[in-house]
Design a protein that fits this description.
The protein is α/β, with parallel strands linked by helices. It contains 16 helices and 14 strands. Helix 5 packs across helix 6, helix 9 packs parallel to helix 10 and helix 13 runs antiparallel to helix 14. The two termini are 18 Å apart. It binds N-(iminomethyl)-L-glutamic acid and fe (iii) ion.
């Protein structure tokens, strides 16, 4: 099969342990073999046998190439929106008043249940296209606004379908334990029983790549979360957790015990939690959009995560309640300005570490054998991607599996 050669570019490979920051290669070459990268390195070093097989040659015009971006934590598929609640709050209504009037997560559950699959797909595709336009080539989508079998199935099926109609890989996560639906009010354990019934059904239908839960005093306890995780483990499904967002409930330790791919939010993470995550190899997914939108003041313990070598990923948390955001590049900027990540840490957070948060080993870095998912940017330095905000990303081309 013929190969494709890309030259006249700088490649931020994001390879772990690279000598240069960002794994940057000046005057790089990429050799693409179908859906995979056959070779990445300095242009002068391309092996002669590969060079001889390159039929097409592309001049990147000096552009910067990065791995395709990965948004590893989204609730992208939902009905309605909560702009009206946003307005009510800014006009003085309290969160409790809004919740009592059926607002908050409950209102999104209502709108998601009322929407047809087609309506959900149309509404979600618009959000997805905005992420793709910024170079996202893989993203995760959680359920959790259906909270009943048919509606969780509808959400996850729409998520899968979006991956068929767009040049993006979708990973689906079952978040049945997101909130207690109205019909189970006051009966949280009975709802957990219902979640445990939904899980094997949806898994058998091929709709579940991972299982997540919202472990928090206003949602599910560690004991209830543990029941969900035990069921996931019995089915061989990896777990993730919305952990320590509003308080330290020890969710990170529980998730680590189950070998979680990631723990997400983590503003209230303790030293013990960070140690447990490090030992389990769990990724810390930081969500600056939710921190900003909820006007939180407690910062995630970035120094602690660095100290224990817990990899940090960054994501939009795209959802109608706490982060109505479809810009992963804005999250790069906010990870730097709000959480004080370095631009290099932020870029690794939407590439290499985001891949790990999804358990994907075939992407997130530019290296031989990896998927040929990459973005060509009209910028000189990688830091420009996190430096500018609210700006056109100067994205030139997105390659997904070797296709433009
Ligand atoms: O990831 N933390 C829980 N869930 C969402 C927000 C849910 C909502 O308000 O709709 C989050 O922030
Ligand atoms: Fe979330």
């Amino acid at each position: 099969m013929s190969l494709q050669l890309w030259t006249h570019c700088r490649a931020a490979t994001l390879q772990a342990g690279a000598a240069q920051p960002y794994g940057l290669i000046e005057d790089a070459a990429l050799v693409i073999d179908g859906e995979s990268l056959a070779w990445v390195g300095p242009r002068a070093d391309v092996p002669a046998d590969l060079l001889a097989r390159c039929e097409t040659q592309r001049d990147a015009g000096g552009a910067l190439i990065t791995p395709g971006l990965i948004d590893c934590h989204t609730h992208l598929v939902y009905g309605g929106d909560r702009a009206h609640e946003f307005e009510l709050r800014l006009n003085g209504a309290t969160y409790e008043e809004i919740a009592r009037a059926g607002g908050g997560i409950a209102s999104t559950v209502k709108a998601t249940r009322a929407a047809t699959a087609q309506q959900l797909q149309t509404q979600s595709a618009a959000r997805l296209q905005r992420l793709i336009a910024e170079g996202v080539t893989t993203l995760e989508i959680k359920s959790g606004y259906g909270l009943a079998l048919e509606h969780e199935r509808k959400t996850l099926s729409v998520a899968r379908a979006l991956g068929q109609t767009h040049a993006v890989d979708i990973r689906t996560t079952f978040l049945g334990a997101h909130a207690v639906p109205a019909e189970f009010a006051g009966r949280t354990d009975a709802y957990v029983d219902a979640v445990l019934e939904m899980l094997p059904v949806l898994h058998a239908e091929g709709l579940v790549d991972a299982v997540d839960a919202f472990c928090e005093r206003i949602a599910f306890s560690t004991a209830q979360t543990g029941r969900v995780f035990a069921a996931a483990k019995a089915l061989g499904i990896p777990v993730k957790l919305h952990a320590e967002q509003l308080s330290d409930s020890g969710g990170a330790q529980l998730a680590a015990h189950y070998g979680a791919l990631s723990c997400d939010h983590l503003e209230w993470l303790s030293t013990e939690g960070a140690q447990a995550m490090a030992a389990a190899g769990s990724v810390a997914v930081l969500l600056p959009g939710a921190f900003y939108f909820l006007r939180e003041t407690k910062l995630p313990p970035v120094a602690l995560l660095r100290e224990h070598n817990v990899p940090m990923a960054i994501s939009t948390d795209c959802n109608p309640g706490s982060s109505p955001c479809t810009s992963l590049l804005l999250m790069l900027n906010m990870a730097c300005t709000l959480f004080r990540l370095t631009p290099e840490e932020a870029l690794a957070g939407v590439t290499r570490h985001a891949a790990a948060a999804l358990g994907l080993r075939d992407r997130g870095v530019l290296a031989a054998g990896m998927r040929a998912d990459f973005v060509v940017w009209g910028v000189e330095r990688p830091a420009e991607l996190s430096y500018a905000f609210g700006a056109n990303p100067r994205l030139q081309t997105v390659f997904k599996g070797g296709l433009v």
